[in-house]
User: Fold these one by one.
Assistant:
Number 1:
Amino acid sequence: MLDNIKQLMTEIGNFSSTDPALIEEFRIKHLSKKGTIAALFEDFKNVPVEQKKAIGQSLNQLKETALNKVNELKEAAQNVTTEQSGIDLTLPGDPEQLGSRHPLSIVRNEILSIFDRLGFVISEGPEIEDDWHNFSALNFAEEHPARDMQDTFFISKNPDILLHTHTSSTQVRDMESYDLPIRVVTPGRVFRNEAISARAHCIFHQIEALYIDENVSFADLKQTLSYFAKEFFGQDTEVRLRPSFFPFTEPSAEMDVTCSLCKGKGCNVCKHTGWLEIMGCGMVHPNVLELNGIDKNKYSGFALGMGIERITMLKYGVRDLRLFFENDIRFLQQFTAAI
Ligand code: DAH
């Protein structure tokens, strides 16, 4: 038996490989339950008592040597060098290119979530519209300049099909499809025939809100505006309304907030007025209610609309609107999404 042990000892001592499959084969041959060493331990039971000590010691030594050998070889196999494996393990890995959320999407989601908290549901309308939904049903006079080819991208004339110039067109679709009361907020991409510059683009984004119910008053509008401004720009933000004109609201107003950058003291961004113009709003014109089949004596409502690019520029201090459309990853990655 000692001869057997000696022979195996030499075999095990001489074995070498960096191939994990061969190392595993070696382990099974010698160290598994049916392996050579287990068989020797089985024979060991029959060894005469006076030889047990010497043979037992050699046997344990053999087992230990085999175990160490397997561990050593396994470790060495993991550290196989470039030359041996043919793969350069020192090369840097391929980085995963992660995208980031577009700043306009971040701001849009933030605005939508504020209106969501006020109970407004999201509705979206088509970008290609007819004259009725974009203009006529919103009380635009026949000769209103916005209907001009200069401002609107027409797809066809007579019948007039166009790219909607504002998200207000979705108000009309909402009045058609929802039962009263209506409380909707509408994000959308809009189109106007404007020269592209740092402050204007022919494609931009708006968010519109519309609320129609019995007894909706200007006070409700003001409260909504104030809540929105404080949630979005900070609790110390103040709001002011200036009289304005839109064909679809009466009275109409323009909402300003105290400049969030200089806190109302006056800076470049607010042109030293301390105020920033944020959105148009007003009480839904009775003509609009009537044109859309809503009883103007029973119902009233308010509407508001804002440009997402403008608000994003103000929020992040972006000075050129064209950056939003270039999609330069270095620009986009500066905005981290809170949502
Ligand atoms: N549609 C207007 C625009 O594009 C913005 C607007 C003003 C929307 C007043 C409204 C509103 O709902 O009440 O300039």
Number 2:
Amino acid sequence: MRIVILPDAASVSRRAADVFCQLIKELPDAVLGLATGGTPLGTYNELVRRNRAGEISFAEVTTFNLDEYVGLPSNHEQSYHTFMHQNFFTHIDIDVSRCHLPDGEATDLALECQRYEKLIDDAGGIDLQILGIGSDGHIAFNEPGSSLASRTRVKALTQQTRIDNSRFFHALDDVPRVAITMGVGTILEADHIILLATGASKATAVRDFVEGPVSSMVPASALQLHPQVTVVLDSGAAGQLTRREYYDYVEQIQCELESKSGN
Ligand code: GLP
């Protein structure tokens, strides 16, 4: 894992946007895996700005979101459909017919999960997947205890996740109990994964998944098994890492190597 520690959340957003832009410049019809939550919002804002400035185009891009609540209509103010359209898709030159999210209103949820997996396969797989992390180490809605080989499926949310996400709802009781989520195994098939974390509230989860053992109790730790993961942190989220000096040193060398090779 490449661990990049930056001073603040704004720098994290710009770095993540750089990774997206570099890929799309090389591969204009890239397949992007997208995430919701507060963490990637700054990245989306930065990508919108660069799109408006004519620096990048999403015209040929395809996207797949990680997850969606079960039972919320797609036009509900807190559905992930609404989140993505309001915060990203309507502001860029993307073809929304190529923007995919699981259908949390499907009558046959198991079939919907299979359909979603097949759609990703048919698109040739995900080139770049962006992830946030839950305070309990979950990625997408793969809660602690999720199989590290899991595929897209229906998952019950933990009380902690429902409490964390209740800030977006009127009351805790309004937060759905169930979601459709890409599995850990599905996520691990992306060619490149970039995980963002900001703020001290993520510091324990970050330490556990970067420096702890691979364990289904910390689903993000499965990223240790992936050959191309970039973890971009602000200093708050990096606050409990024990090998911080080493990560900074490795990153400095990596940057030197890249500037020599013209990357
Ligand atoms: C939800 C999402 C995750 C996200 C997490 C953290 O549970 N399903 O994909 O990473 O929230 O969100 P935030 O970035 O708001 O802390």
